[in-house]
Queue: 4 jobs
Job 1
Amino acid sequence: MSEISAANLPLAGEQAILARRYVGALYALAEQEGAVDAVAADLLNLRVLWSESPEWRFVACDPRLSHESVAKAAEQVARSAGFGKLTSNFLAVVAENRRLSLLPLLIEYFFDEVGARRGEFHADVRIARPLTETQREALTASLAGAVGGKVHLKVVEDVSIIGGLTVKIGSQFLDASVKTKLDHLERSLKEAGAAA
C-alpha cells in the first residue's frame, strides 16, 4: 500500500483558485515564449528536489523564516538546479508570496494543464485489489471517454478502501469506494436512530 500525500488529495477553495492562477500565468508565459517543454523539464527536477531534500521542504514551509531567507533559498535552488529564466522567476514569485508549501500542487497542476492542452490526462486510481489487464483496459477506456482524451493510469493498492475505487484526474475526484459507501450508510442509520 502506498502512502497518500497531500498532493494526491483534491485541493479546494481559495487554495485551488490561487494554484490555478499561478499555473495559468506560468503556462501562458511558457506558451508565449515557446518554452512549455523547458519549464516542464525544470518542474520535473523541482519535484525531485522537493521529494529528496527535507532541508528544502523545511525552508519552503517554515513560517518562522524571514522573507529574505526564503527568497534567497529559492534563488539558490533555481541557480544550482540550472533552471531557465521562467522557472526561476516563477519560483521567486511563489517564494515572495510565501506559497512555496504549495509547490507539489502547483507542479501537479502545471502537468495537468500540459496534458489537457495536449489531450492527455493522468488518473490516480486507488483500489483495494490489483486490476486485471482487462479491467485496466476497460477503466482506461471509460475514463478516456469521460474526459475526451488519452488517459494514463497510476494505480495504487489501498486495502483501507475495502473495495471499489477512487479516481483523481486533475482537480476532479470520484469516490466509489466501499468504505465511503459504508460511512454514508452508518451516518444515515445514526441520523434515522436519532430522529426516531
Job 2
Amino acid sequence: MKIADIIDCVDFPCKDIDTNSYILPFAEIETEKIKILMITEAPPNDKADYFYAPGSPFYLQNTIQAFKDAGADVASMQDILNLGVYITTAIKCGKTQYAVSPETMKNCSKLLGQEISLFPNVKVFMLGGDVAIKMMNAIWKQKTGKRVIPAGSTYKIRGQAYHYGDIRVMPSYTPAGKNFLIEKSKRMMVAEDIREALRLAL
C-alpha cells in the first residue's frame, strides 16, 4: 500500500508549519513485512530532500550513511525497506521555526497514530528526537494512561529497555538533520541504535 493514499490532513490547522512541504511516504510499502518503525521529526522544507524522493535526496543520504555506520549494506530506500525498516516523520509538514508547538504535535499525532496502526508486525519503534518521543508518548498515554519513555535528555535515557506491550521502544536521534554527519557523538549513537534495532527485529 501507499501510505500517502490512506492518511491525509484535510484542514491543516497548525500555525507553525509550512503546508507547502506537507508530505507522507508515497512508496509502495508491504506493511506486514515491516518490523522497525523509525520515526524522525519533520520533513524537509524542500520535498526534493525527502526520504522517498527520487534520485539521491539529502535526508536519505544521511540515513543511508547511518545504516552503513551500523554495518548494514544499503544504498537506497528500497534496501532499507527490504531490511524491514519503514521511515516516516512525526509531523507531516516542514517546520517554520526550530521548535514545534504542543498544539501542532497534538494535531499531527492523530495522523501519526493512524499511520502506525497500519503496521501489524512491528517489533521496534526507533524514535529520532524529542518531537517523535513526545508525540509517541502522547499516543501511548491515550491508550494505556502512561508514557513509555521517561522525561530526560536522550543521551541519558537511551540504551535502556523500554516497551509498549511486546514492542521495544528506543529513544534516539534523527539522522536527517544538516549537522548529523559532523556531530560524531550523535552519529555514533544512532548507528548503535540502528544496529540494536536490526538485531531485535530478527
Job 3
Amino acid sequence: MTIAKFTKNSLLTLCAASTLALVACTPTVAQRGNTLEDYQIKEIAPGVHTRSDVLKLLGSPTSQGTFDEHIWYYIGRTTEKHGIFDPEVKKERVVAVTFNEEGVVQYIGDVNGEKVNVPVSDDATPTHGNELTVMQQLLGNIGRFNPKSTDEKK
C-alpha cells in the first residue's frame, strides 16, 4: 500500500514540476506603440488627406517632431521574452507622416532606422551620484558627529 502511495505522490510531483517548467519557458509577447500595417499606410494619399483624415484612419501619433510640428511618427515594437532573459525585439516599425503648412499629407512611409534613433525606456530611472557599499556607508559616518560646543552648554 505504501509503494502505491509513494508512486502516486511521485507522479503528482513530476506532473507539477513539468507543468511549471513548461509555463516558465512559454514566451511573453508584448506590443508597444502603434505598429502600422501596409494596408493602413496605403489608405493615406499624399496631397489628398489631411491631419484629421490621418487621425481617423491611423489613430493618434506616437510622437510629433521635436523641432518640426509638421511630422508625425507612428512607432511600434513587438518583443518576446523567455523566462528571466531580456526581451528580444521581433518586429519594429517607424512610420513618418509629413504635412505641409495647410495640414495636407506630403509624405508617408517607413523611416530608416539609421536616420532616427528612438530611445527606449528600460523601466529604470538612472540615478547619478556615488554608489557606496554598506561598509562605506557605515564607516563614512564615523567622525561626522561633532560634540556640542562649550558655548551651547552655558
Job 4
Amino acid sequence: MDKAYLCRMQSLPSRLLEDAVNEMASLPGIGRKTALRLVLNLLRRTPDEVSQFANSFLLLRQGIHYCSECFNISDTTICSICADKTRDRGLLCVVEDVRDVLAIENTRQYRGLYHVLGGIISPMDGIGPADLEIESLISKVAQQQPTELIMALSATMEGDTTNFYLYRKLKDYPVKVSTLARGVAIGDELAYADELTLGRSILNRTPFENSMQR
C-alpha cells in the first residue's frame, strides 16, 4: 500500500467515520481500505436498514447459546443435531470449532454426533489442553460409551499434536478411535476443504494407529 494512501486514511474527514472504520477493521481479514468501503456502503443505506444490520449482531451476541452436549453454537440449550433422534449416537466426531461442524454437515456423509473442542493445542499461541473441551470429551466417552470416535481435526502440526494427545487420553477406553483419510492435504484447515474431498475422507477414515505409522 503506497504512503499517499496511508496518509489519506489517517486523516478521515469525520471522527464518527474514523471510529466506524476502526471498528470494522478490527475484524479478522478486514484491512482499513476494505473497512472504509464497507462503512461507506452502510452510509448509503436507510436508517432502518442500518438499524436492522446492527441489531442482528446485538441479538446474536445476547441470544446465542453453546450446546450443553457438544458445545456447538445454537439458539437453544441443546442444538438441533444433538436433539435429532435419528442421528447415530454411537458415532462421535471431534472437531476444532463450529466451522468444521458446518463443513462436515455440508458433505451429507455423516450422521453421527459431534464434540467441539473450541480450538486445538498450540503452545505458540498459549493454548493448552486445559483451555479446550477435552475433559468433557473424556467424561462423555466414559458415560455414553460411543462405539467410534472420529478425530476430524485439521491436518496441521497443531491438529496432529491434539490428535495424539486425545489418543493417549482415550487409549484405556473401549472405543474405536479413527481419523480422517488423508484426502485432506497436510497443512490444510478442515473448514476450507472442498465438500467432495472432505466427504470421502470421512467415509474412508482409518484407525488412528495407522496414521502413527506413516
